[in-house]
Structures are given as C-alpha cells and as structure tokens.
Amino acid sequence: MAKNTVKSAIRNSPTKSRSPRFGVFSFFGEVFSEMKKVTWPSREETTRLTMLVLAVSIAIGAMLGVLDFFFTTISDQVLF
C-alpha cells in the first residue's frame, strides 16, 4: 500500500512540469497579448529621444576622452 501512495504522490506532484511545447506556445501567446496593450511613441518622439541619447553619448565620450588625455599626460610627466 505504501508503494501506491508514493506513486500517486509523484503523479500528482505540483513540481511535475507540463510539456515544454505547451509552455512555449503559452509564453508567446502571452507576449503577443501584452504587446497589443503597449502604447508606442510617435515617430517624432522616437526621433527626438534618439537624437538626445546620441548627443548625450557624444558629449560624455568627448569628456572622457579629454580626461583620459589629461591624466595620461600628467602620469607620463610624473612617472618618466
């Protein structure tokens, strides 16, 4: 009788996974339903924000380049 109890506990276990195929279809179904709820930005807003990101990236890159040049020059003079 103990063997039957163990087998039924394993069979009814909540950790027993479903078929991976069903999980994949379910996942993508939920993804598509969520994508329908998204409010997408307009083309103008996307362009404006992209330009802002590029400008900030270029400015930070230039600042880091100047700082790198400055510290390299100082370290060359101090060490050599």
Provide mean pLDDT, rounded: 84
DSSP, total strands: 0
Task: Please summarize the sheet with the most strands.
Answer: none
Strand percentage: under 5%
List low-confidence stretches.
Answer: none
Output the structural class: mainly alpha
Q: Termini distance?
A: 85 Å
Describe the structure.
- This protein has 80 residues and is mainly alpha-helical.
- The protein has a domain at 41-80.
- Helices cover 80% and strands 0% of the residues.
- The chain has three helices and no strands.
- The N and C termini lie far apart (85 Å).
Furnish the topology, listing elements before pairings.
Blueprint: H1 2-11, H2 20-36, H3 43-79
Features:
80 residues; mainly alpha; 3 helices; elongated
Summarize the structure.
The chain has 80 residues and is an all-alpha fold. It has helices at residues 2-11, 20-36, 43-79.
